[in-house]
From TrEMBL, chain A:
Name recorded for this polypeptide: 2-oxoisovalerate dehydrogenase subunit alpha
Taxonomy of the source species: Bacteria, Pseudomonadati, Pseudomonadota, Gammaproteobacteria, Alteromonadales
Entry-linked SUPFAM superfamilies: Thiamin diphosphate-binding fold (THDP-binding)
Catalyses which reaction(s): N(6)-[(R)-lipoyl]-L-lysyl-[protein] + 3-methyl-2-oxobutanoate + H(+) = N(6)-[(R)-S(8)-2-methylpropanoyldihydrolipoyl]-L-lysyl-[protein] + CO2
Highest taxon of source: Bacteria
Any Gene Ontology biological process: branched-chain amino acid catabolic process
UniProt EC number: 1.2.4.4
Keyword set, alphabetical order: Oxidoreductase, Thiamine pyrophosphate
Organism encoding this protein: Paraglaciecola psychrophila 170
Biological function: The branched-chain alpha-keto dehydrogenase complex catalyzes the overall conversion of alpha-keto acids to acyl-CoA and CO(2). It contains multiple copies of three enzymatic components: branched-chain alpha-keto acid decarboxylase (E1), lipoamide acyltransferase (E2) and lipoamide dehydrogenase (E3).
From TrEMBL, chain B:
A Pfam family assignment: Transketolase_C
Organism: Paraglaciecola psychrophila 170
Gene Ontology MF annotations: branched-chain 2-oxo acid dehydrogenase activity
Name this polypeptide is given: 2-oxoisovalerate dehydrogenase subunit beta
Domain of life: Bacteria
Gene for this chain: bkdA2
PANTHER family the UniProt entry points to: 2-OXOISOVALERATE DEHYDROGENASE SUBUNIT BETA, MITOCHONDRIAL, 2-OXOISOVALERATE DEHYDROGENASE SUBUNIT BETA-RELATED
Keyword Oxidoreductase among UniProt keywords: yes
Function: The branched-chain alpha-keto dehydrogenase complex catalyzes the overall conversion of alpha-keto acids to acyl-CoA and CO(2). It contains multiple copies of three enzymatic components: branched-chain alpha-keto acid decarboxylase (E1), lipoamide acyltransferase (E2) and lipoamide dehydrogenase (E3).
GO biological process entries: branched-chain amino acid catabolic process; response to nutrient
EC numbers, comma separated: 1.2.4.4
InterPro entries reported for this sequence: THDP-binding, Transketo_C/PFOR_II, Transketolase-like_Pyr-bd, Transketolase_C
Amino acid sequence: MKDRNHLANIGLVHQVNVIENGLIDIPMLQVLQPDGTLHPQAELPNITQQAALKILHTMQYVRVLDERMVAAQRQGRISFYLACTGEEASTVASAAALEPQDMIMSQYREQGALAYRGFTSKEFMDQMFSNQNELNKGRQMPIHYGSKALNFMTISSPLGTQIPQASGYAYGQKMAGLEAVTICYFGEGAASEGDFHAGLNMAAVLNCPVIFFCRNNGYAISTPSEEQFKGDGIASRGLGYGIRTIRVDGNDVLAVYSATQKARELALEHQCPVLIEAMTYRLAAHSTSDDPTSYRSKDEEGSWLLKDPVARFKTWMQSKGWLDEEQNLAFIEQTRQEVLKELKLAEQVPVCPIEQIIEDVYDTPPWHLKAQLAELKTHIDMYPEAYPKTSGRS
Amino acid sequence: MATMNMLQAVNNALITAMNDDEKVMVFGEDVGHFGGVFRATSNLQQTFGKGRCFNTPLTEQGIIGFATGLASQGSVPVAEIQFADYIFPAFDQIVNETAKFRYRSGGQFSCGTLTIRTPYGGGISGGLYHSQSPEAFFAHIPGMKVVIPRNPYQAKGLLLASIRDDNPVLFMEPKRLYRASVGEVPEEDYQLALGKADIVKQGTDITLLAWGAQVEIIEKAAAMAEEQGISCEVIDLQSILPWDIETVCSSVEKTGRLLINHEAPLTAGFASEIAASVQEKCFLYLESPICRVCGLDTPYPLAHEKEYMPDHLKTFEAIKRTVNF
Ligand SMILES: Cc1ncc(C[n+]2csc(CCOP(=O)(O)OP(=O)(O)O)c2C)c(N)n1
């Protein structure tokens, strides 16, 4: 419909023509078969052994992180955690296909993308314990990471709000003439929010170089995707908005890597948005506050365990002779030790001094905030035992 | 009478309403089979079927727009917003649509049967986005009622009254009390009047006013003050809008002093509205300035949650300052 007259290119029919769901059927890119062997017809992405190892190690790292932190939550050492087990390939391989100058806007289950960029165990732990070293000054719950240095926008809890923001950020990159894109991650649940529709439409119309990356993992807390949407998933919505769209096997590192490389290329070349729908499964609970046994079966989870993205990629790497099993086990063990060590260190670090409570509300605190801080400090001095985190420090 | 926590009382009220009127429907994110993230809607789908208790897609504007339309048709929707922090995507629907539905049609159409339930408030290590107390935003909209219970008994009686009230009601549940507050709740159907405050404790020197989970805080401060010989009258406002100006003013006329406590930030919080009205009505009775003990004018923090909270100690100090003015 290039013509400015929007009727010019519409075909005509002369009986009522109802277009039914099912006419478009968007296929899914798969490079590795579930058993880790290369699909006979598959086109292999251009990937080096070094890149493959970094992807594998990052996936194994976040798996260790998830295990440790879920345990730490059970022990009451942190208040909350959210695991990405089962979805590592989607977030790690997509991040691997980007460049460091590309902005990442994430939902909350993308610790893999952040770890790939180089967020350290110390930084993860400082965030989780909201201590004074934490980059966001301990203001948000665990898992709300953010790092300006790594081009990873600080996460906000309200779902979907980052989607139109990503369109805006990408438009800014384009106007500044940067060789960069924005990637925006979200779940299929968040794709029901009004912000999703607004964000995609803005990006399409304003030609923003943004990659919308939907992790379709089957559930939004307890709500299965059949109760979340009708039609052909999230991919069909990309097409509806006039956005180039790719559906990919989210448990297949090579497929996600290829798709994201292609998406980045398209976004830069055409200065346009691209939507990727990664079909995957949340093996973990939604969060440490959730109990999935009340809404899904062990059989269902079991069938997805067989599609484990980490094992699948490992098998392929072994078949290439790219993996030394002993070295790999040593890496995992060393990762465990490192996470544990940083966890113990981070939990000893105090929270930010009380002065910071009024910082960053505005660029500089106005009079009323200064007055409230002064009053608060006087009060804390009167009852030091009642405010142990901040009393006696200034 | 049965002993229930606040979640069980809410659940019991919903069952009572659904049994009483088949037009009552309960929906929201995860409220169906799972029973809601806090389990306030447990077993409703199993008992009343998927037609009357269901999961919605994850869209608050969708939930409230849908509920408003459904109510205008004559059904009785009870829509859940999973956390009050997430009501803002539905703000336009509530402010511009739900609240103005009856007025703009000259009374021809109404969505008065709608009740919106939402957990609110802090004290649960929820940080910025799982702790807010947004009642003042909604008290600023003509056309909505805003109701907040403080214990299981109130929760059931006020929720039933909200569902049956012929105005859209925002029913805010203090989530820090969901399991912590346990008490006797009648099994039978009963209602507590909307728009009425509850005098929790009589006193003569100062009136302490709060709602929801903060009532517990002012009660604690009152106990400390009593030890110093200060007699406090403790009032739970219960309905934020319309609010019971009569009960509050007659108490202030007796004690001569008023302290209002809420968790939401101080500036433009609902305490400001109360203070302005009370000084207008009770100016000659006041022996000291009306005092507000509220959250700070910052977003709700995580690591500094305890410092942010208008707790019993801050309230106790403020009581002494006000009495010794
Ligand atoms: C606006 C808003 N509404 C509700 C919530 C509560 N909530 C947090 S996560 C979640 C489910 C999200 O599901 P999805 O987007 O599919 O991501 P997944 O958890 O499956 O990775 C909900 C309802 C929220 N954070 N924000």
